[in-house]
Amino acid sequence: MRTIIMNTNNVVNDGQNNKLVYKFPNSVLFKDSYITLSSAQMYYSWFNISSKLGNNIFYYAWRNALGGSTNYIVNIPDGLYEISTLNQLLQFEFISNGHYLVNSTGENVYYAEFIVNPSRYAVQINTYLFPTSLPAGFTNPAAVPFPPQTYNPVINFPAKINQIFGYIPNFSTDFNTNNAFAPPASSIYVSKTAGGTLSYISTTAPNVQPNSNVILTLSNIDNQYASPTGVCYTIIPSVGFGEVINERPPEFIWNKLIPGTYNQLTLSLLGTDLQPIIIGDPNMTFIFAIKEGIMGN
Question: Same structural domain for residues 22 and 145?
């Protein structure tokens, strides 16, 4: 049994860090040869939200003193986000645009939020009734204008970002103008309090990390049961973002190398959509074992 090592030196220098090429010192003839992943070490450094994934934008609508509304774009910088971090980003946008008040204890009051609802395995959106004048004890440091009618800010999820939260594409909450919105009696996904608070529950399981694993594909192998045929292993991170993933298969999964003479092997890293995934950190090591001889079916 022989081994080959692919590491940082084998990473193709294209900025995506998802392809490694191992060049043999000399051309090698493979016949009745099998290969398997022996161990892998890499950093958990791929994002769940990015411009590349096309899921980095959502919107909220806010009304002005005349009652008209403006849509505000929330651009999410490329990164790995939890729902709580996305809620913080929404609050940051509210502050940046002056869309908040301060209560009598000096705390900022925001009129929409994202929270995790673990009992429903869902992401919950709460929107709150914005007043037509300053409530007693509140201050208005950003001088946000008050509308002629009470309303709830509107949250809108375009396609792709909706999957992170578990809502349908282009889902929007309701303005609830003058607290007049009435949720359908049969709906289990939206509710309303007497004070005008609207709560929405995601209708599908939130897919917070679209690429929850990395699929390894290797050139020159004959895996007739896989698509693509080069699939040889899957790495599922069990560590926090930025930490080292140490993967050691409990037993070898042998894949037959297509007979022929080769001067290199190419390892590709794919996301769950079977498309190349962008890996942030090129520091990685993959050790493969190769054995020869006819194996049983």
Answer: no
